């Protein structure tokens, strides 16, 4: 799976497999022809790179001897993809050549035109005239074939052959060569040739000359201008990708500042976008020399093509030419030169402080400068000074941490101990969320050569710096749009947004009314120390204490307290903690990492102190067996959020509760011992650990996979996520020839979804119908969109999900990240340390009541002080024995005391949320150019759990309809303009019964899982 590729990206992906198949098929075909056959192209067949003429000649040879039906569909799809890519690149070069044409562009345009003609000729030769005369989309089919390998290409069309015979089919498909009037002796020679070939067959197949050649090495050479043309194509596509991602992230930061989007969501999306930029860079620039991969090289190429002076930053060059000024903005030239200016100035002093000349400029930077009333030059200067000022603070912070590590290395201890301690301290001193980038900038300041620096700065480094700068600019009302240019709007009110807004909620909670992140960790650490006092040492006790203590380091980073004071350049004009207070980007990525830390740390605690798992099983039994009169919302929510970690395979038991609990705890113990998961070493911590307990945090899963959406394991991705549902909807339907029924292909997610449905007693055909409905809904939505596009603009082509751009995949990811942080599944938004303390208190209350009642089952495990015997038990091990036994034999006294305690001790889960409210449903994107708001008949979208204006259920009515992902629902109306039950009106029924959208009213509310939605009356 991948995102929509730009032309050169798709070309690089598909040209290799195409050329490999042509060469392998040609080699096999020539070996099968009589030796007297003379109509064989005289081209080298042992090199992975071929010329255009060779591609055409070999295609004609294959087409002459292989029937149309035996040309693999994948090959035609590859050919179509390459033709489309080169055609698109040619169109780009033609556009570039219309304005101040550059010789390289003109030569490239001519070269690409020749390439397109040759590819079309090859398509005709391979019986692919249909893809030229009547273009049809083979991208979906090609998408299902990825990733293409040599083995897949070798076996195309040979599925019926034995494995050892697999290879390009050229035998029975080959057309018979018509006999001619050859010279006498021809038959003898042919006979000898056949004998020779028979001998070769007996000796085994001929050696594969391309055995050691990677698939990426195959391609087509474009002549003397080919390398330059290919490089221009690659660089142009690289910057197109950068601009699309930048525009998307600007919209995201707009949502943060103006619409209240949690800044951690923006941080996670920024990390993912930078990974996309780096992956694109690696693929697009693969095959070029290292000196061609630096930002300076790609910038020089674009400045040459667009004819602007990229080296003349801060001069009168290009002044007055808005087109060229916007080109410099598009290609991130300003950010690059600001970085170079900082590095140059930093090296001059060598003490971490700006030079006198730079200090005169920087000290006048005003964060409240009104950008709307400034000239373009003033805005660029304001942004430049901010960049340099902030980079000084970044390097100062990073340097202070390096000094702590250096101090460890100077200790008078054995080298082995010193190295180990230094490694731990280095991990502890990592800069939260931005350590890698800070290390790069610090490294650049060490170099004494501008040339070396330029070679080390890669395009994705400049893109990351641009994202950092944009995060502040957007929140000050300044964005850049390719069509509209520089867009300036009024900044948000200071009481509505500041970079530390969500960070402060995380650190201190809401107005200090509740304990925040740090106090939760401190309280939990103290509670574990008290519970473990005088008892047998537990596994990993010291490790868990160290992890909990690390919360202090993370807290200090956010509030601007470095390990060593005095090494940062302090600002006397804009206040303290410049690094965080003036960088929404750092606050976002830092908070995302901190949320990941607090979630995984507490899950690691749960692996050792298993009371939360015991409590979930205990509550489940008490409810199902009637000890509780009704469900308790607090425990119901916990059970739903942590089912995968507390119950085997996430299945909540309905009987045999004691044995299931015992099995769950044994399974968790085994996973702790045998886990092969990723070794986690979070910032601020001196220890590393592997997380054994299962969880459904999308944010944590993303970070574990390097923020790469396309690396997510389908074995781990939460089934509740939109991503999982979307991938299930994309699964290919399969028809059973015996029954004629349709079902989804057996992918990992489909198998998991079937198992989950079976746990809900949705079995057989009902389960399959539910899964197929997801795919059908997507298909019907596609059909409706196609029809709407056709009615409004016949030339519009509807994009399939396979054509999603990187920003559209990020938008899909955004829904699940929001749900995880402050949405309807806020696993990372819970103050889990405080929650865990509360769970321990519940058990203590149960035990106090059991002691007061003189419960024999409890007292048998206690010492004289009424506590579990300190010489034998840890509290967790004692509770395991007590409650597994009580649940197994149904000890009435223990279970009734537990039920009474749970009924009285449960609060609201919202008390443990870091934020002031939760957000339900997928929020619509908005931007400075579009407000993202549409008219609705009824709007109850504000009816979230934690609103200042409390909305009771009695104030709402419940309706049914077709619920969409954006939180709206279509409801059919009658003549009296009242809503009716339209739950049966799927998109398909709407079409079958000719229900037009004009007959429906679109409303907003709080959508529930059962398809209903609460709407305010």
From TrEMBL:
Annotated segments matching region Disordered: 157-210
Comp. bias intervals (Basic residues):
172-188
* Superkingdom, natural source: Eukaryota
User: Per the UniProt entry, what species is this protein from, by scientific name?
Assistant: Pseudoneurospora amorphoporcata
- Which intervals hold domain DUF6604? 11-285
Entry-linked InterPro entries: DUF6604, UCP028035
User: Which residue intervals are annotated with compositional bias (Basic and acidic residues) in the record?
Assistant: 189-200
Protein name as annotated? DUF6604 domain-containing protein
